[in-house]
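Let us practice reading a record.
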Amino acid sequence: MKKSRIASTFERIKKEGRKAFIPYIMAGDPDLYKTMERVLLLEKCGADIVELGVPFSDPLADGPTIQRAAERALKAGVTLKKVLGFVSELRYQTQIPIVLMTYYNPVFKYGEGRFVSDAVTAGADGVIIPDLPPEEAADLIKLSRTGKTQPGLDTIFLAAPTSTLERAKRIVSASSGFVYYVSITGITGAGLTLDTTFKDHISMVRDLTGKPIAVGFGVSTPEEARIVAESADGVIIGSAIVKKFHEDPAGAEEFIRGLREAIRQ
């Protein structure tokens, strides 16, 4: 199978001696036209990969900021099908890697095979489904790896501070593109504690795989991003960016550039 955009991006970043900046925004918040502007702004500000949320009515892993963003997108009529159409349109503007963050219910209703096929055709590069554990994802993984002349869809699973050694092995084996390390046991946007336990557990996961490890959940300031980047290959920042775009859009670019520079340090 041909190498994915995500894998190629991490290889390039590693050669350049830096870490990946992976911002998250909700597709359709407040509408898809504004989402297009924001993805292009994120790329302009130095994003390496963009994580694009698919709105869902019961986002169990998300905190209040992203829940409210999902509600705004749902009120705007945004669906999984419309997000895939949006990614297809986005590909006329940029080739930045796009990771879809969704929940299993929309994928199940859409149909796993159809979802993978349409996502790849649209130009999506990876998918994160927080409520689909690797033990139950065999069919999705198989469907996502079927690309022969073109990349399939990277399946990205979440390792947490509570993951045992055996579970971490299963997670890194099922993941492609990168492994998503959840820095806290809780929801997105919750407080982040950066201590030796955090670093030790990432080291344990790193000992199991050569795949890149990106850290998310709870990273909200440039200083936190800088510290996380010392241990990770990439830093995922969602709630803080979603909140900034919603509450202070005029200050969003400066804030995003500050995060990017902190990660570069």
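A brief commentary: The beta strands are 20-26, 50-53, 98-101, 126-128, 154-156, 158-159, 179-182, 213-216, 234-237.
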